[in-house]
Amino acid sequence: MQVLRAVVGSGSVTAAAARLGYTPSAVSQQVAALEKEAGVELLERVGRGVRPTAAGLVLTEYADAIGRQVAEAEAALADLVAGRTGRLAVRYFATAGAGLVAPAVARVREAHPGVRVELKLAEPGEALADVKEGRADLALLVRAGTGEGVRLVPLLDDPYLAVLPRGHRLAGRRSVRLAELAEEPWVGSEWPGPCLDAQLDACAAAGFRPRFVVESEDYVTAQGFVAAGMGVALVPRLGLGTRHPGVVVREVRDPVPVRGIQAAVRESAPPQTALDHFLDALRATAGGVPPR
Length: 292
Prior knowledge:
The protein is an alpha/beta fold. Helix content is 42%, strand content 26%. It has three domains: 2-82, Winged helix-like DNA-binding domain superfamily/Winged helix DNA-binding domain (Arc Repressor Mutant, subunit A, Orthogonal Bundle), CATH 1.10.10; 86-155 and 260-287, D-Maltodextrin-Binding Protein, domain 2; 158-259, D-Maltodextrin-Binding Protein, domain 2 (3-Layer(aba) Sandwich). It has helices spanning 2-10, 13-20, 24-38, 54-82, 94-111, 124-132, 194-205, 219-227, 273-287; strands at 43-46, 49-52, 85-92, 114-121, 138-142, 150-165, 175-177, 185-188, 211-215, 233-236, 247-253, 258-266.
């Protein structure tokens, strides 16, 4: 149909052939094949040139529309390949939202406004499954280890900080050794899993296992229990949010408990420039996360 369009537009088979880079014979053969398929003549001779029949004019109009759609499709594809447009489905966990994901999305929107990022809060197991099964392009996880079919991109080591009652004996220090908290009652701030494991592994390295007297499994609630004098707690830097007025926060050393935050992407996924842009934004944000 695009050959017919060229013939009608130029008024002759020879001129159309020159425009398309074909031989006149090849153009004539393609028009003849189209006429056979349509079951009707599409061109009629006028002097040394040709003009479309009524049927030829109808097909030419459709060829024009198809040509415009093809051009639009090619432009849209070029934008997608270049990363100017695209859609990303991202899974994340709560404490990575405000400090890591939100600034990264803002960076992408500013630099690549045509890229749409769809966000969903998800539990680690659900998030990883969504990536593996292609329902999500990327998931934020804590120390996921290795996963079959998944590539893990390290983003940030998020250190735990000691949360102490305001009148605690160590509250005047700039930092505390983890072993100095060994005999304290502890307020739990984590669900069982990699985040709690990061705390327990550090405590084991310091020679003790914490004695939990409260299981809050929530950073805000843990601060409330600490402020009430129930014990001490460890909270990751990204999880501190608004501090309770009744607590003080101090750095921990010897060793520093750390949870590793990673981005998980599917190994078999085709290359996506938009995904590369978002990973770059996450890395940039992770590198500039300010201390609290």
